[in-house]
Amino acid sequence: MAEGEMLLPDRELYAACAALVSEASAAGLTVGTAESCTGGLVTGAITSVPGSSRVVRGGVVSYAIPVKHEVLGVTDDVIDGVGVVSAECAAQMAEGARRVLGCDVSVSVTGIAGPGGEEPGKPVGTVWMGLATPGGTKTFCALFAGDRAAVRHAAVRRAVDLLREGIMESCDPHR
Asked: How far is CA 44 from each of CA 39, 80, 117, 128, rounded to the nearest angstrom?
């Protein structure tokens, strides 16, 4: 078992994080995160890989709405309109992370991990993610099953995969 695997017991997630670090390093690109419902777990998973400091610029844990607004630049229109569990919020969080962290590729995660917090049309397990690259910003919605830990774990795994996609897209803008 590699050193980082002891810190991150999910071998598949560790392997995905190690691949991300390797791919970003080879491409000369940096990554960052803006996390709400995952509370820093995405950044924690990636930084469990030795050598991750070459590519990880940092992460913003924007659990509180004022942090989303004041640090990441999520607009009042989004917060008071569609809400923080939305494509618009995920996009602004990812773009804000790219800006404040000075990274090439960033991912954002905002959602309802449960067990409470369900809103009309947004059941527990609803997670919006944003991916910001030099080529633009995309958003993705997932509905993850399970308890709070399962939802958060699935969100971390998907966020790592999105960062890897962003690295590949940044290397090949025609993708």
From this structure: 9, 30, 24, 19
Neighbours of 139 (CB within 10 A): 19
47-69 pLDDT per residue, tens: 999 999 999 999 999 999 999 99
So what's the pLDDT on residue 174? 56
Maximum separation of any 2 CA atoms in the chain, in Å: 48
Question: Cα separation of 133 and 119, whole Å?
Answer: 30
**What are the residues whose beta carbons fall under 8 Å from the beta carbon of 71, sequence distance 6 or more?**
60, 62, 96, 100
DSSP 57: E
Label residues 40-72 b or e (16+ Cβ within 10 Å = b).
Answer: ebbbbbbbbbeebeebbbbbbbbeeeebbbebb
**Residues facing 136 on adjacent strands:** 133
Please tell me the predicted confidence (pLDDT) of residue 5: 45
The reported pTM is 0.94
For the record, the structure tokens of 15 come out as: 């392997």
